[in-house]
Amino acid sequence: MADELKDKVLSVSDQIIGWRRKFHRHPELGLECHKTAEVACEHLLKLGINVKVGIAQTGVLGTLTGDNPGPVVALRVDMDALPLAEQTGLPFASEIEGVMHACGHDGHTAMGMGVATVLSKLKHKLNGTVKFIFQPGEESPGGAKQMVKEGVLENPRVNALFGCHIFPSIPTGNIGIRYGAMTAGNDEFTISLHGVGGHAAYPFKCSDPVAAAGHLITAVQTIVSRNNDSVHPLVISITEINGGSGYNIIPETVTLRGTIRSISDHSRQIALKRLKQIIEGIKSGFGIDCSLQIVTKDFPLICNEKLTKFVEKSLVNWLDQDRVQIINNPSMGAEDLAYFSAAVPTTYLRIGSYDEKNNYIHNLHTPYFNFDEKILIDGTYILSGIILDYLNAPV
C-alpha cells in the first residue's frame, strides 16, 4: 500500500507545488481568504467532493464519503497570511504589498488539496468519511472558533481530527508529535492609564501616566519570576506602548497592550490575579485611573493521548522510525486548532523544514521564511497515510 500511495502522491506533486506558489503570490489576511478559498473549492468540486463554502466568511468544508461505511475523520489546514513585507527574493514572491505567507499556510493549504486529491482516487478503499476543513483567520481573528460554532464538526460528527504545521525548528524530513499540550493559551490584555496631563516643566502639577506605566511594566515582570511556580511555563509580554504627543507635554493617557501565554489554568489564574493587583497598586500609588481589558484568544492545544499514540504507530508505516520526533516541551506560541481539540479528539503534526545546508533556516513570522517544497510532497503522503490507517482501525 505504501508504494501505491507514494505513486498517487507523486502523480500530483507538480500540482501541489503549483498551488503553493499560487497562494504565495496572492496572500490574503484574516477571514478575507476569498481567492484562496475559491481555488480550494473549485478543485474539491472537480474531485466530486461535496463542498460547503462561506463558513467563517471564507472557510471551505469538503466532505468525501468513502465507498464503505466507517468513522469520520477531519483534516484541518489554515489559509491566511501575515501583514509582513516579503524579503525572500523568490521568483513567486508575494505580489500583495505588505502581506506575506510567513507562516507556511500556503503550504498547508496546498497539502490539504493534495490529500483530497489522493484520497478521492482511493475512494473505493475508504472505510468511512473524510472532512477537509480549509480555515481562514488562524492568525487573527479566530477562524477556528467560528467554524466550530457553524457546525463543521457535525453532520456527520467528526470522530478524530488532524492538524499540521510546517516548522523550522525540526529538521527537513522529520515529523514532530507531542502528547498533551502542544501550544499555549493566549490571553491578550489592554491597560489604559489615565492621569492629569500638563507641561513637562511642571510635573508636580500632573499625575503622570508615563511614569506610572514604567513602574507597571517593571512590576509585571515579577509575576513570572516571583509568583508562578517555575515548573509551569508562563510568559507575560508587554508589546505595545502608546501615549504622548510632544517632548514638552505630559500626556493624560498611556495605553499598554500585551499577551499572557500559559499552559496550565493555575498559572493563568495567577497571572490574571497578580496583573489586577498590580494595576490597583499603581492606581492608588500614582493617583491615576487604570482599566484592564482581557480577551481570551486561544486555549492550550491539547493533543489527545490515544490519537497521538495511534499517529506515532501509523507514521512508521509510511516513513523510517528515526524520522519520528517526540517533542518534549510545549511551545508558548498559540494555535487556534485548540478550539477543535476542545470539541473532538485532535492531534497535531509538525512537519520539519529546517535545512541549514540549503539555507532554509529562517523562523516563522519573519520576512525571510521559506522552505524546501519537497516537504509538501512528504506531508501529503504522510497525512494521506495516517487518514487511511485511521479509517481502517479507528481508536
CATH topology of the largest domain: Aminopeptidase
**Number of DSSP-assigned strands:** 16
**CATH homologous superfamily caption of the largest domain:** Zn peptidases
Mean pLDDT: 97
- Describe the main β-sheet briefly: 8 strands, mixed
**C-alpha geometry:** elongated
Q: Quickly name the level 1 CATH class of the largest domain.
A: Alpha Beta
Could you give the order of strands across the largest sheet? Answer: 1-2-4-3-5-16-6-15
Instruction: Determine the strand fraction and express it as a percent band.
Output: 25-35%
Question: Which consecutive residue ranges, at least 5 long each, have pLDDT under 50?
Answer: none
Q: Which structural category do the helix and sheet elements fall into?
A: alpha/beta
Radius of gyration: 24 Å
Q: How many alpha or pi helices? A: 10
The portion of residues assigned to helices is 25-40%
Organism: Desulfotruncus arcticus DSM 17038
Protein name: Amidohydrolase
Binding site for Mn(2+): 103, 105, 139, 165, 365
GO molecular function, one term: metal ion binding
What attributes characterize this protein structure?
395 residues; alpha/beta; Aminopeptidase; Alpha-Beta Plaits; 2 domains; eight-stranded mixed β-sheet; four-stranded antiparallel β-sheet; 10 helices; 16 strands; 35% helix; metal-binding; manganese
